[in-house]
Amino acid sequence: MDFVDYPDREMLAIDVANKLAGELRAALEHEDRVLMAVPGGTTPGPIFDDLCAADLDWSRVDVMLSDERWVPEDSERSNTRLLRQRLLVERAAAARYLPLYLPGDAPEERLEELEANITPRLPIQVLVLGMGADMHTASLFPGADKLAEALDPKAPALMAMRAPGAPEPRITLTAPVLDGAMSKHIIIFGAEKREALERARHLKPSEAPVAAVLSQAQVHWAP
Ligand SMILES: O=C1O[C@H](COP(=O)(O)O)[C@@H](O)[C@H](O)[C@H]1O
């Protein structure tokens, strides 16, 4: 794991957006299409604000979330909503979005369809993840009902997940798919998450799910 320390969140956003754009451009030089997966939540918005204006061939980029909350797109809790408002705009509006939510009462109802759309596009070339102070990443939460299955090297690409720390059902990319990404960036803000990440380095993924994706990841931190 490589740790990059920034003086503030704005500097982090500019630098990470530049790095992601560079990685996408480089991958587009030898691939017809490139897959980038990004997190939802409160952290990535400023990176999206910079990345959406990057000068690259977005029409050959597929964008998906690392995980989604099972709520309609117009909900304040929807990660898709964040993506549509702050990443899939300006130049990046030309990207193709691969959804992790379709209308339905529970993720299990639409899981097969969603997975059929994602699996042929794997592996992920460029991955960005967030992390909660509880050491969850994507929707791999400590104590989640299917965490052990999602950490299994033979896990399917996508799984439904429910966890005490998550107010709604989730759908998430599983550990082998996340860990298998060609380039991995983890974005964290604040002292509490920095301490949590330090703890996670010495714990098993079953206790600290983010530990499943730390190898060869670049962690970007700002106060
Ligand atoms: O619920 C989620 O949480 C994590 C971390 O979110 P943050 O608000 O603490 O940045 C996020 O990475 C994930 O995509 C999201 O669904």
From TrEMBL:
The answer to whether the entry has keyword Transferase is no
Single GO BP term: carbohydrate metabolic process
Glucosamine/galactosamine-6-phosphate isomerase domain location is 7-221
Q: Spell out the SUPFAM superfamilies in the cross-references.
A: NagB/RpiA/CoA transferase-like
| A Pfam family this chain is assigned to | Glucosamine_iso
Q: Which reaction does it catalyse?
A: 6-phospho-D-glucono-1,5-lactone + H2O = 6-phospho-D-gluconate + H(+)
Q: What is its EC number?
A: 3.1.1.31
Query: Which keywords appear in this protein's UniProt record, sorted alphabetically?
Result: Hydrolase
Q: In which pathway does it act?
A: Carbohydrate degradation; pentose phosphate pathway; D-ribulose 5-phosphate from D-glucose 6-phosphate (oxidative stage): step 2/3
Major enzyme class: hydrolase
Gene Ontology molecular function, alphabetical: 6-phosphogluconolactonase activity
What InterPro entries does its record include? Answer: 6-phosphogluconolactonase_DevB, 6PGL, Glc/Gal-6P_isomerase, NagB/RpiA_transferase-like
The entry assigns this protein to a family as follows: Belongs to the glucosamine/galactosamine-6-phosphate isomerase family. 6-phosphogluconolactonase subfamily.
Which PANTHER family does the protein's record reference?
6-PHOSPHOGLUCONOLACTONASE
Function, please? Hydrolysis of 6-phosphogluconolactone to 6-phosphogluconate.
**Name of the featured protein:** 6-phosphogluconolactonase
Q: Its encoding gene is what?
A: pgl
